[in-house]
UniProtKB/TrEMBL annotation:
Residues of the CRAL-TRIO domain: 1-135
Protein family membership: Belongs to the SOLO family.
Protein name: SESD1 protein
PANTHER family: SEC14 DOMAIN AND SPECTRIN REPEAT-CONTAINING PROTEIN 1
Amino acid sequence: GGKDRRSGLILTIPLCLEQTSMDELSVTLDYLLSIPSEKCKARGFTVIVDGRKSQWNVVKTVVLMLQNVVPAEVSLVCVVKPDEFWDKKVTHFCFWKEKDRLGFEVILVSANKLTRYIEPCQLTEDFGGTLTYDHMDWLNKRLVFEKFTKESTSLLDELALINNGSDKGNQQEKERSIDLNFLPSVDPETVLQTGHELLSELQQRRFNGSDGGVSWSPMDDELLAQPQVMKLLDSLREQYTRYQEVCRQRSKRTQLEEIQQKVMQVVNWLEGPGSEQLRTQWGIGDSIRASQALQQKHEEIESQHSEWFAVYVELNQQIAALLNAGDEEDLVELKALQQQLSDVCYRQASQLEFRQNLLQAALEFHSVAQDLSQQLDGLLGMLCVDVAPADGASIQQTLKLLEEKLKSVDLGLQGLREKGQSLLDQISNQASWAYGKDVTIENKENVDHIQGVMEDMQLRKQRCEDMVDVRRLKMLQMVQLFKCEEDAAQAVEWLSELLDALLKTHIRLGDDAQETKVLLEKHRKFVDVAQSTYDYGRQLLQATVVLCQSLRCTSRSSGDTLPRLNRVWKQFTLTSEERVQRLETAVAFHLSAEKILQECPEQPEAFNEMEQFDEIEAVGKSLLDRLTVPVVYPDGSEQYFGSPSDMASAAEHIREKMKLVSLKKQQLRQPEVTTPES
């Protein structure tokens, strides 16, 4: 890829320590010199013989061999000498002696001084240059190029032979079958793809030399004949297009003959054995099992038809493809075949579909009838069992289930009538597919069976409705009873939740008198809510007793709920009273403390009596002691307000205010102490 200062190509011959085969080297040079164009060869070559790893005799033989291999193209031979130089006299004498006979100049130079004769940007790194060169990459691309050239040339010959032979024998092939080999030795698509990839690589792969050198490529147009690739691709595309047309024409003629044969096979079977199978199937069955058996038999008939219908679909696609080709001479015959095939297949498919729909409608009718019969049996069984619910939820669930079953029966009977009428309509139309056979007797039996099933289901449904009305009245009364019991129990739960909330959340005593009064007012409203809940529960329990007497039954909750309600209310009352006492004590404490703390310190006469401070401390200590005392219930159990940390927080606010009062007291005493000393 490198060029000398005359734009001639640089040919590098690396020699190694191993024995160098001159024959192989000669063949390699012949091959490399065959690559450049004649125009490029005319500019001459500069040959670099890298003898740093070889003997002088080998280098001399290679230089002399260049005279025969590259006779007129070599303008300069640079022999790169090793560090341990050969005998100077010998080498100088030999080159000088052969100079006139060789016809080109030979110089002996060190690798680091090679740039005197060739620009560094045109030398590879081995010789101290900056030219980027990957020999394996070049070799791989070259192999691809040669493979493509060989395959494309061979493929062009084969395609031309096939295309020309097809043109000459086109008229004869219409009269007789000619066995020609339409398959080339290699795949044209693969060769074309390889060529396009190679061309793309040639056009896109570029390298820039160092120091702003001229752009060059290891597979430059001059080296790999880029126009040759483009020319081969154009020729391949042209021949391959002709080859595809030849194959298409031959394939179309072969398809036409096969289509004609297959069309007659399909028509003959559908009009013969296929039609005979349908003539023997007319019943609909009198149960699910009978309908399923007939349906299974019909599926077997359909399975046999499906194989022929698949052939029909394939043939129709093939005929459509040939019609799209637009050959006038085949259009009439193809359309006639297509019409004949479509008429027979559609007629047979319609008969199969009608029979399948009839059997499916019969199966659905029998399925609905069986489901409705089971629903009526379940509803009757439910009505025959006495009502013994466990609670209000279960009685409501039972009543809801009863209504749902009755509604389901109504829907089922309506669906049965719709299915039956649809089936009767199809049976009335069955005569149009009878192929001349009288099916009146079979149709009458089927009609009588369908009507009999619908009448029987109507009578059973009416009997169940009468029983449901009686059962519904009794269950509604029981629902009211259980509802009162559940609501009374719920009132107990609500009251318990209020008690729990009072103990766990009603803890704060307020930071001042105003806040404490607000808490006290909220607590009174809270107690009013609890009182309403208790009264509501008492009323419900009284209603429960009345309903039990009316239904002549014993209530589960009348003897249990009332004691629970009274017990929880008693606990709530005690807890509420304790809360009120604490809040009232806190109000008194805050009012007194705030009054003392807000007095003006310049008026000591207002605090002559220290009893006020003592009273405040006594109230505060009393309040702190009350915070540590639990609420004791009649059954002996105890409950504290909130958690220990909550109580500690409430007590801390009291202690802080007591400290402020104590500090105020000390400040007032201070003048009394200091005055005598002064």
